Amino acid sequence: MNTSVKDTANANNRTSSFSLSSQNDQWNHMKAKKYQPLVIKYPKGDGTQGEYPLGCGNSLEDVMLIITFYILFFVFLTAYFCLLLTGAIQTDESHVILWSFFYFGIFFSVGVAGAVYMGMKEVDKENEQRRSLEEIRLKESKEKA
Predict the structure, then answer these.
(1) Full-prediction pTM beyond 0.85?
(2) At a CB cut-off of 8 Å and minimum separation 6, what does 53 contact?
(3) What pLDDT, in 10s, does the model give residues 78-103?
(4) Which partner from 15, 56, 125, 128 sits 20 to 30 angstroms from 77, CA to CA?
(5) Among 75, 90, 105, where does a domain finish?
(6) Quick one: 86 and 134 in the same domain?
(7) Inter-axis angle of helices 96-144 and 3-12, to 10 degrees?
(8) What's the rounded Cα separation, in Å, for the pair 41 and 46?
(9) What is the dihedral of CA 103, 109, 114, 119, to 10 degrees?
(10) C-beta of residue 1 within 8 angstroms of C-beta of residue 140
C-alpha cells in the first residue's frame, strides 16, 4: 500500500459530526452518564408506576437551555425591532438606517449561502475521496485473489 492511499485512509477514519457512528457514540456517552430524560411519574390504576415523557426525551437541563435560548432570541428580535423603529423615526425623510440594515442583511445572507456552498463542496470532496479509496481497496483485494 503506497503512502497516498494510507493518507487517504487516515483522512477517512474521521467521522462527521452527523454520521451514524458519532451519534451512537453520543448516545452511549449519555447512557454512561446516567442521562435522565424529563418525565412525570404517576401511579397507574393497577398500582404500577407510570411515566409521561416531557421535553421530547430531553433532560431538565436541556429543556431549560432551550427555553432560555428562545427567550434570548425573542429579546434580541425585540431590541432589533426597536432599533429599526428608532432609526426610521430619526431618519424620517431618507431612511438611511433602514437601507443600511437592508444591505447588511443582504451581505449576511450571501455570506451564509457561500459558507453552505463551500461546506457542501467539502462534503462532496470527502465522499469522492472515500469512493476512490474503496475502489483502490477493491482492486487490491482482486489482485490478491
Answers:
(1) no
(2) 37, 38, 39
(3) 999 999 899 889 988 888 888 998 99
(4) 56
(5) 90
(6) no
(7) 130
(8) 14
(9) 160
(10) yes
